[in-house]
Amino acid sequence: MARTTLVYTSCLLFFFLLLADLACCKEILVGGKPSAWKIPSSPSDSLNKWAESLRFHVGDSLVWKYDGEKDSVLQVTKEAYINCNTTNPAANYSNGDTKVKLDRSGSFFFISGTKSNCVEGEKLHIVVMSSRGGHTGGFFSGSAPAPAPSHALLGGPAVPPATGSASSLTRRFGVLGFVVLAIVLL
Predict the structure, then answer these.
(1) Weakest-pLDDT range from 28-32, 148-152, 182-186
(2) Eight-state DSSP code of residue 52
(3) How far apart are CA 149 and CA 129, in angstroms?
């Protein structure tokens, strides 16, 4: 009887963790608050400092809240980011409620549509983690976090999580997933 309860509990735990793993894609409010898309009060208040504390995954979405009559968000190249070049952006958002899906791994660059705001630091560079086998990370991923964006990495390729010679099933579920599976099968 106790063994049956353990098996059922293990199965429920396994499926709960699996569902949590599949629900990995998030909407991330830029700067963590609605008023964050602005000229930073100091370099330590920049959005890049905020981004260094997070890990972005393929499938996540960045969300900006701002006054669309006074500002905008431009998705730009590395060169345009460095030079605050507001002409010819890859994408231009100006509705005040912008959502951008991170559809690939690597660097993403965003600047204010107001050049003087960009020059004063209203811009964002993030690095999205590389996915393995189409998986975007989560509880069972068993991978190391992506590096935080930094000036040294500016525009460089995303560094993928550490890889080994594990099978694709191991990469998908990680060690914890196999431990739970072993408990269920015992």
Answers:
(1) 148-152
(2) H
(3) 11
Instruction: Name the band, by pLDDT with cuts 50, 70 and 90, for residue 151.
Output: very low
**Residue 164: CA atoms inside 13 Å, Cβ hemisphere, count?**
12
How far apart (Å, rounded) are the C-alpha atoms in residues 163 and 186? 29
Band (pLDDT 50/70/90 cuts) for residue 43 is confident
Query: Amino acid letter at 29?
Result: L
Number of H helices, E strands in the chain: 5, 7
Q: Angle at Cα 72 formed by Cα 28 and Cα 147, nearest 5°?
A: 40
Alpha-carbon dihedral angle through residues 27, 30, 31, 34, given to the nearest 10 degrees: -90
Sequence-ordered alpha helix ranges (H) in 1-156: 2-22, 47-52, 78-83, 115-119
DSSP-based three-state secondary structure for 76: strand
Give the up-direction half-sphere exposure of residue 152: CA atoms within 13 A in the CB hemisphere.
4
pLDDT exceeds cutoff 80 at 13: no
Distance CA 94, CA 97 (A): 8
d(CA 75, CA 124): 9
Nearest to 128 by CA among 109, 159, 148, 106: 106
* Mean pLDDT of all residues in 30-57: 94
